[in-house]
Design goal:
The chain has 263 residues and is mainly alpha-helical. The chain has 2 domains: 33 residues, no CATH class; 204 residues, Up-down Bundle (Growth Hormone, Chain: A), CATH 1.20.1250.20. It is 80% helix and 0% strand. The chain contains 13 helices and no strands. α5 packs antiparallel against α11, α6 runs parallel beside α9 and α7 packs across α9. The radius of gyration is 21 Å and the shape is globular. The chain starts with a helix and ends with a helix.
Length: 263
């Protein structure tokens, strides 16, 4: 493709990606009717009002809403750290594989398997979150992320091990992101959900951008195994917050009057 179009080598994938993104954007813009936000408002019985205009949508206001709700803070932390861990390792995996002499075909297979783990099992993850609860599934995701880190630390030069590690990295990201996004949205009032969800996405992407930049420096100075280990350690704050959240819930239940517990 590159030779026929007079493009540099390996640039054809970017052309294909640009075309597909354009088609997707056009489809969403022209074909997504009715607007999901309007449907949500109708479902939640939130009718537009003729009163004062709402305050401007901004990140500070959204973060203020999140800070007031412990569940929202936990969900946002889980989202951001899982995304940073995933992006940081994924970004440097092709570089590491190439440095160890693996072909572009191996790189392509590795990233394809990684993306498969990210998205293919999302419906099952959502079903599990509905059945077992958001928190247990998020914690299961932390375990998958930890296993991925262990594999990538143990054998960074083995293509087979890295393929499995990257698959688990994508799967762990999915297992955390699906229930944590739902938890974040459901932990705030319905009228605030679009704002808070947007702030969560912005925080995820901003943190991931910093993680991607930092991953290069870590890769150069310490190597891929260290990068994988540091990314795996990002589960520690999430586990700490989960334990703290669980203690808080149990304390609230103990302090609740007996008649309220029975209701």
């Amino acid at each position: 493709m590159e030779s026929r179009l007079g493009l540099p080598a390996l640039s054809g994938a970017f052309v294909i990606g640009a075309v597909l993104l354009t088609v997707t954007a056009a489809t969403v813009w022209f074909r997504m009717r009715p607007d999901p936000l309007a449907v949500a408002a109708e479902y939640r019985n939130i009718a537009p009002t003729t009163g004062p205009a709402p305050s401007p949508v901004n990140l500070r206001r959204a973060l203020s809403e999140i800070r007031q709700v412990p569940t929202a803070k936990f969900a946002l932390t889980a989202l951001v750290l899982a995304h940073v861990a995933m992006v940081s390792v994924m970004t440097m995996t092709p570089v590491s594989l190439a440095m160890h002499g693996h072909s572009i075909t191996i790189v392509g297979i590795t990233i394809s398997v990684h993306v498969l783990g990210m998205y293919a099992f999302a419906p099952l993850v959502g079903s599990a979150a509905d059945r077992f609860g958001r928190m247990p599934v998020i914690l299961a995701g932390q375990g998958v992320l930890a296993l991925s880190a262990i594999l990538n630390v143990a054998a960074p030069s083995s293509a087979g091990v890295v393929v499995v590690g990257l698959f688990l990295l994508g799967l762990g990201w999915s297992i955390v992101t699906v229930p944590a996004s739902t938890m974040l949205s459901q932990s705030v009032p319905a009228a605030s959900r679009p704002l808070v969800q947007g702030a969560g996405d912005s925080a995820m992407n901003a943190a991931a951008a910093l993680g991607a930049i930092g991953s290069g420096a870590i890769m150069v100075s310490l190597g891929f195994a260290w990068l994988a280990g540091i990314s795996g350690a990002l589960i520690i704050p999430v586990l700490w917050l989960a334990a703290r959240h669980t203690r808080g819930v149990r304390r609230s239940v103990r302090l609740m009057p007996v008649r309220h517990r029975e209701v």
